[in-house]
Amino acid sequence: MKDAEPDFVADVMRDPHVWECVREDGVARDEVGPDAQYTYLRVGDAGFMMFRRIDGVAWEVHVALRRGAGAVDQVYRDCLAEMQRRGVQQFIAPIPEWNRAALLLARRFGFRRIGEIERRAIRDGKHYPLILMGCDDEFRSEGS
């Protein structure tokens, strides 16, 4: 597992499929790119997972994979395992309510709903909750 280069991160975030999943009002597609607060782990040419330290044990996690990325379960498992090797004990995934695929993926790996921030995400002029999904140091995938 290697860190993703800034140009690669920007390219994936601007991919039409990825952009449709993450876009919010007030953010232009050509303005998105890597943020120095995050660690980006590259997943071949398919995309990346990004992590940001919240406190001494918890890290925020996001996934950005292009359509047809392939073995999503293995990618997810490998990235989380790499971050555990780096000392992460807890993952928190803030997911806009409209991103059903991300919510299902998080649940499949043992994340559970731990909270909600009302009216946090805005899309097409409508406010949506930001669903907080959490997972302690053990994660899983279906069948494992």
What does this structure look like?
This protein is of the alpha+beta class and 144 residues long. The protein has one domain (2-135): Gcn5-related N-acetyltransferase (GNAT) (Aminopeptidase). It has four helices and seven strands; from the N terminus they run βααβββαβαββ. The protein has helices spanning 6-14, 16-22, 72-85, 100-108, and strands at 2-3, 39-43, 47-53, 58-65, 90-96, 112-123, 126-135. A seven-stranded mixed sheet has the order 1-2-3-4-5-7-6, sandwiched between helices. A hairpin with a 4-residue loop joins strand 3 and strand 4. It is globular and about 40 Å long.
Keywords:
single chain; 144 residues; Aminopeptidase; seven-stranded mixed sheet; 4 helices; 7 strands; disordered C terminus
Number of contiguous helices: 4
Oligomer: single chain
The parts where pLDDT drops under 50 for at least 5 residues are 140-144
Count of DSSP E strands? 7
| Helix and strand run | EHHEEEHEHEE
Q: How far apart lie the N and C ends?
A: 21 Å
| Main sheet: strands, sense, barrel | 7 strands, mixed
CATH topology: Aminopeptidase
Q: Roughly how many Å is the radius of gyration? A: 14 Å
Portion of residues in beta strands equals 35-45%
Q: Into which percent range does the helicity of residues fall?
A: 25-40%
